[in-house]
Amino acid sequence: ISIICSLFLCVINAYSQKNNIDEENNKKSKKVSLSIISYNIWGLPIWIPGIKKKERFPKIIDNLRRVDADIVCLQETFEYEFRKKHMSKLNDTYVLNKDYLANTKKLIKVDKRGGLNTLVKTQYQVLEEYFFPFGAEKGMSKVEKNGGKGFVITKIETPIGTVNMINTHMLAGNDEKRELLRLSQAKRMKVVIDSLQLFESPTFLCGDLNSIHPSRDVNNDYIGKVYRFFTDSIGFKGVYDKITEKEFSYDGKTNKYAHSWYQKKIFRETLDYFLYAVPDEYLFKIEESKVIFN
Q1: How far apart are the first and last CA of the chain?
Q2: pLDDT at residue 99 in the model
Q3: What is the mean pLDDT of residues 228-249?
Q4: Could you tell me which residues come within 8 angstroms of residue 8 by beta carbon, excluding any fewer than 6 positions away?
Q5: How far is the CA of 124 from the CAs of 127, 163, 182, in angstroms?
């Protein structure tokens, strides 16, 4: 429940160009530019003062249409009404995953996919999609256990071949104990990434990591371990070497929804990230990256 109403947009550019191809084949190298959004919509299936779902949900769809990204990674889509009534309005533009694990028979119809939905433009083919739950661990709150968080891996066919998109939402909480629980979740992710050999193709990870960037350690009561694990142990690279105010993805001071009740002591922070791992044979660059508060 960290980023309330902001989009993290990343536009990437990559094209395949093998090192050992002749000049003629080099002229035929394929190119693709992708824009990717990470967006925690704060779609909790309960009423909380200031949450104002009926006011926010239609605006979320309008903003997604306006930005028109190729891939949209949504977190906290627990609210059944959002998926059924609002997100379905995007099915003319995006391939929507089958809500096959949604609990539709009970009074509270929550999403059993960890509140994660990855939307892909219809011009691309979704080859496979898997949801991997993190599982419950000792020390987690009842809310976190019921949320069933995890990560979704979507394999997408593009003009340069298959790319992997990982959408995740990790444990919330701003203390060392919860950071260690998040580290355990990151290690679970590494096992899956290695076993599926995802890094043989361009792989992108985005979502709500709920962890402080290393450049923000001085603003924290503990040393962040999760981001370092993603970069040092798994092999991802991050968009930013240093976080400035422009990269803050949570603003509890100016965001009226957050300020009404949630973590008033944490006014501004970066909790949402875009990471990538691209094989050497691809020429790759970040063209643009920004946080959109709306």
Answers
A1: 17
A2: 63
A3: 93
A4: 37, 38, 39, 206, 249, 272, 273, 274, 291, 292
A5: 9, 11, 32
